[in-house]
Task: structure prediction
Amino acid sequence: MAMLATTSSKRAVEIAPGVHWVGALDPQLRRFDIILKTANGTSYNAFVVRGESGVAVIDTVKENFADDFFARLESVARYDEITSIVLNHLEPDHSGALPELLRRAPQATVYLSSRAQMMLKALLKPGGEQAPEYVPVSTGDTVALGGRTLRFLHTPYLHWPDTQCTYLEEDGLLFTGDIFGCHFCDERLFNDRVGDFRFSFEYYYAQIMRPFREHVLDALELIEALDLQLIAPAHGPLLRHLPRDYVRRYRELAMPRLFNEARSEKTLVVFYLSAYGNTRQMAEAIAAGAERIAGVRVSLYDLEGGDAAIFTDFVEEADGLAFGSPTINADAVKPIWDLLSSLTSVNIKGKLGAAFGSYGWSGEAVRMIEDRLRGLKLRVPVEGLRIKLVPDAGELEQCGRLGENLARHLTGEIEHRELDLAALA
Result:
């Protein structure tokens, strides 16, 4: 069956007895949230679960696609039957139709995570709507629909603080929000019928979930214990064929990529780019100084030898990062900024950071790099080092001491303190 440019039917799609997909397809989308490319669009997945005594709607769709959502919803349920509205995640692509749904089903109780309460109020404020009756829930809380039970799992930061998963106990269906999702539009819906979406699945993880891998691992502890017959994410194919394989793949992706032979070691990675060899000499001296401290392994990389993407794994696994750049036109060089920009795709909060570099006239690069490191939530406990032109023996000794200090901070020999920038002025 060929994939059509637009969905051919506005009817709901049954994914299990009494459980229907009522989402929307967006095949023309080519960029999502500015940063993600979408080669063949995306889907906004929403669901209806029918029990003997109530009907639950799980998530909605982007506002532009509300008509499709309501048409499909109306094909399987009346608005006066809806007793529960579950919001796994309040980002606009999942909550865009919520205000209108609340107007059509005012009797429904909203269930959402405790962290989503303020977001719900902010979401409704632009239209002047009153906040509906809602119940904040956490792991283990349930909603009975009559013969069917929704159980909630608290899974924050996947990828917003408000996110949760909802498990339909009797059927083994897990509605996951963004986790296990991807931007891949195919009206055949199910993973055993759509085209090859492996690239989209892993690209989505790398861009959206990778910075929160510790939270991914926490969520997997809850999810792996479940009987999983189908995983229903908020974007992309519904995973009914071998759903546990996708859970295993997430664990593989979330585990450390690099093997540290000595688990007790701290790691320091020194990146540099040097116009005339001066910043390179500084980098080598810093690395040599750090290596004098037991329990620290140092890696040295010249950014002229590779682009930012190939260093992502090193950055993610390192405990400390030092960046060296000459000052050219009152700025750090572009490869340094490219690497720093790429760090938003990994979790670097709390890592140790430092800056250094040679300069000819003004020397702004070091301070600029330090400011960026602080903006990325790295610790910057040691003042960056600037050396004019060619470093002499005494200045290279300073570089060695800088490396030693960084290493001692990593091992805990020096108690952490933040620099008082005012005192340096």
Q: What stands out?
A: DSSP finds 13 helices and 21 strands in the chain.
